[in-house]
Amino acid sequence: LSTKLTSAMRTLKGKGSITDVNVASTIKEIRRALMDADVNYKVAKEITDNIKDQALGQKILIAVEPGQLLVKIVHEELTKLMGGEKQEINLKGDPAIVLIAGLQGSGKTTFSGKLAQHIKKSGRQVLLVACDIYRPAAIDQLKVLGEQVGVEVYAEPENKNAVSIASNALEYAKKMGKKVVIVDTAGRLAVDEAMMAEIEEVKKAIRPTETLFVVDSMTGQDAVNTAKTFNDRLNFDGVVLTKLDGDSRGGAALSIRQVVEKPIKFISTGEKMEALDQFYPDRMANRILGMGDVLSLVERAQQAFDEEEAARLNKKIRQNNFTFEDFYTQLQQIKKMGNIKDLMGMVPGMGQAVKDVDISNDSFKPIEAIIQSMTKKEKENPDILNSSRKNRIATGSGTSIQQVNNLLKQFEDMRKMMRMMNKVQDGKMKMPNLG
Ligand code: GDP
Ligand code: MG
């Protein structure tokens, strides 16, 4: 997905602004990329329609290329669609009861062990309950995991009634003063009526504080259908997305959230008991987009650049009116964006290039001091700077005449460039005859 999106974004790069025409093909590519990632067509269309509306409504900032701006919009949209904020598991109740549901092989038992360890770390007494009565090895699997994370496992190998095991376990937990009970259940390879009825019964009997639906992120489009079926019967509280360490596509996270309107609470990223993370929508959006730091660059630029100020400067440049005062203002804007070196490092491909270069905000200090030592009249009209004025400025700013002269020369060059650009734009200047 990420390479597709990257190329979709690239199409927009270098275009002056976001318009209907240049956004349309990019939007189409984004939609195709989402569908390739197993996001269902309706969901993908909804997402891209939203993105398009927002993109067209955005004012373009001079500092940000439209492509980058679109990345930001897509990122925000994906984050929002996946719930915005991270959602905590509800562990109220004494004991709190967590019911784990899902298809066989989705990672329920593994997740139960991980969750037990996660909760145990916060200092609460946990009990794991083995309610998979169909596979003889299931109890042993949970026992091994329980031992590994140091959590007691409740099991009744002879009992073939999941509802009664769960109820007995609950009673045992209360007696032993356990604070959280995690009930691992059986799952079939595909949704079937008997299995659904059983877990429904278990749910009714133990009244869990939290029912979590576990789903294998590698199953793509099927994951969405399974989620819908489970949600219709169980009305679960949250989703656990497993096997995100594999070659999984981001689509499941997006579509499940959209279709069942339940938050994803955890992601599972490996077979080790430590491989459990809370679900952060913005991080998942990052991962889907694969665009790393470009986003924070865009954000910082947007915060720092005052659009009106930019327009004002633009006008002054157009009128050949750019003064040292304006130059100083512009320096402050650049500095507001953060450390210069960091900023350059965030531009893709630039990180290596500036690694060993010493650019710090301090590099601007002498320039700022020189400008601050000028009178208002001097800033507006540097032509009046004779040698006695230059001497005074150098002394006042703690710099040398040479530094003052250098800055004056750079400034004059800059103004010349601006005048030339204005002429080109006005069509007053003919291209030099190269023949
Ligand atoms: P259950 O049938 O739903 O209880 O699923 P299990 O917990 O037994 O997991 C099925 C298989 O998937 C096992 O081999 C697990 O080790 C593996 N598994 C579970 N979660 C993950 C995960 O996040 N990443 C990877 N790579 N494998 C996982
Ligand atoms: Mg299991």
Automatic annotation (TrEMBL):
Q: Which GO terms describe its biological process?
A: SRP-dependent cotranslational protein targeting to membrane
Q: Write down the top EC class of this protein.
A: hydrolase
Region of interest (Disordered), ranges: 378-398
A Pfam family it matches: SRP54
In terms of SUPFAM superfamilies, this protein maps to: P-loop containing nucleoside triphosphate hydrolases (SSF52540), Signal peptide-binding domain (SSF47446)
Catalysed reaction, written as an equation: GTP + H2O = GDP + phosphate + H(+)
- EC number(s) on record? 3.6.5.4
Q: Which domain of life is it from?
A: Bacteria
Keyword Repressor carried by entry: no
User: Which of this chain's residues are annotated to bind GTP?
Assistant: 102-109, 184-188, 242-245
Which compartments does it reside in? Cytoplasm
Keywords assigned by UniProt, alphabetized:
Cytoplasm, GTP-binding, Hydrolase, Nucleotide-binding, Ribonucleoprotein, RNA-binding, Signal recognition particle
Here the segments flagged for biased composition (Polar residues) are 384-398
MF-aspect GO terms: 7S RNA binding; GTP binding; GTPase activity
Domain SRP54-type proteins GTP-binding, which positions? 263-276
> Which Gene Ontology CC terms are recorded?
signal recognition particle
- What does the entry note on its domains? Composed of three domains: the N-terminal N domain, which is responsible for interactions with the ribosome, the central G domain, which binds GTP, and the C-terminal M domain, which binds the RNA and the signal sequence of the RNC.
- Family membership, please give it: Belongs to the GTP-binding SRP family. SRP54 subfamily.
Q: What does this protein do?
A: Involved in targeting and insertion of nascent membrane proteins into the cytoplasmic membrane. Binds to the hydrophobic signal sequence of the ribosome-nascent chain (RNC) as it emerges from the ribosomes. The SRP-RNC complex is then targeted to the cytoplasmic membrane where it interacts with the SRP receptor FtsY.
**Subunit structure of this chain's protein:** Part of the signal recognition particle protein translocation system, which is composed of SRP and FtsY.
| Protein name from the UniProt record | Signal recognition particle protein
Q: Which organism is it from?
A: Sandaracinomonas limnophila
